[in-house]
Specification:
By secondary structure, the chain is mainly alpha-helical. The chain has 15 helices and no strands.
Length: 383
């Protein structure tokens, strides 16, 4: 009987003990549920830390439940920091908390604890709180830069060279096209030297007129008449009566018809001209940027060597040789004018010694006079 009573008493003690433990666990859960630190929407404050040296954009103190604004009266001790950290780390440990974002919050909580329990880091953290300029001087700008993936240098250089070469080819073609269009216009309209024409346009026009004349003769031989698109000069009606019309209007119509007939012939001839001189030529592989870059040192050396010879001959007081005379005259009047001149004109320019400023000005004035009317030229000659 005493043994039975003892067993009952022992069971009662165990029940009481277990009941107390359950009550304590239940109380802790209630306290944890009421703890604002465990709220997943808790305010973690802000801090200027774009380089993530400390806790990134969040306030390390706020993460662990402390308010920096109250530190004048209650600065947290190491013990208080550790206490809050343990409570938060248990609640947000990813092995125990399966909520979304629990792992990230646990990492931030651990980082805040590391910063605030390290004396030097905590001192530096407190120093930079109100001194973003000092943070900038030590850790850099608030803008976070990131490098793009490393490019293939060879591919980039190759693409750049190809692009530049394509551009130089296009540029050279534009130069040639500008002169070609001008020659076509001058040849079709029959402009003389004084009116803006050139030796090329006059020569092309003469060739085109011969071709047009031959075509008209062939057309007349085959059909007995000239087709309207070749020479639109017929103005007869049905019945054979000639229509009366103004002579000027008729001449204008004939001129326009001739221009339209000449244009395709002139264009064909001009397209065959690969070089107008003065650098206005159709582009070739020699005009690519790569080739020009490769030969640039050669031309620099040649030019330097030429000037050394020139200076040497001047120091020895020797007369100009033919190469020097051509070079000086060409530089004086320009490459375009030099290339457009024939042998006789070049010899005349060399005789005038156009590399001398006064002679060059007189020659330019004379060239401008040649562009004027015959009457103006006679008047100029009397002066």
């Amino acid at each position: 009987m005493p043994a039975v009573m003892a067993n009952e008493a022992e069971q009662a003690n165990e029940a009481g003990s277990n009941g107390g433990a359950d009550a304590s666990a239940s109380k802790n859960k209630i306290n944890d549920a009421k703890n604002p630190l465990l709220d997943e929407n808790a305010d973690w404050g802000t801090f200027y830390d774009p380089k993530d040296i400390f806790c990134g954009k969040f306030d390390c103190y706020k993460i662990l439940g402390f308010d920096y604004l109250t530190f004048e009266t209650a600065r947290p001790s190491l013990k208080e920091i550790t206490k809050n950290y343990r409570s938060l780390s248990r609640a947000w440990h990813p092995d125990k908390n399966k909520k979304t974002g629990a792992k990230e919050r646990f990492v931030k909580i651990s980082r805040a604890y590391e910063v605030l329990t390290d004396v030097e880091q905590r001192k530096e953290y407190d120093h930079y709180r109100d001194r973003p300029d000092a943070y900038f001087q030590k850790y850099g700008s608030g803008v976070t830069w990131s490098y793009a993936p490393k490019s293939n240098t060879t591919a980039v250089v190759l693409a750049l060279l190809i692009s530049l070469s394509a551009f130089t080819i296009w540029l050279q073609h534009r130069r040639w096209r500008t002169i070609a269009d001008h020659v076509i216009k001058a040849a079709v309209e029959g402009l003389g030297i004084k009116d803006g024409g050139s030796h090329e346009s006059l020569a092309v026009r003469q060739k085109a007129l011969k071709v047009l004349e031959k075509r008209q003769a062939d057309e007349k031989e085959r059909n007995g008449t000239v087709s309207p698109d070749v020479a639109n000069i017929s103005s007869t009606k049905k019945g054979g009566k000639t229509k009366k019309e103004n002579k000027k209007e008729k001449a204008k119509q004939e001129a326009e018809a001739e221009k339209e007939s000449l244009r395709p012939i002139v264009t064909e001839f001009v397209e065959q001209i690969t070089d107008f001189g003065g650098g206005f030529r159709k582009p070739t592989w020699k005009d690519t940027f790569v080739v020009q870059l490769a030969v640039l040192p050669y031309y620099i050396i040649i030019g330097l060597f030429w000037w050394l010879k020139y200076v040497s001959r001047r120091l020895r007081k020797l007369d100009y040789n033919d190469e020097e005379l051509n070079h000086l005259t060409k530089n004086a009047i320009g490459r375009v004018a030099w290339d457009a001149s024939d042998e006789e004109e070049r010899n005349e320019m060399i005789t005038r010694e156009l590399w001398i400023s006064d002679n060059l000005e007189e020659w330019k004035e004379m060239q401008e006079t040649k562009q004027q009317s015959v009457g103006y030229q006679k008047k100029y000659a009397r002066w």
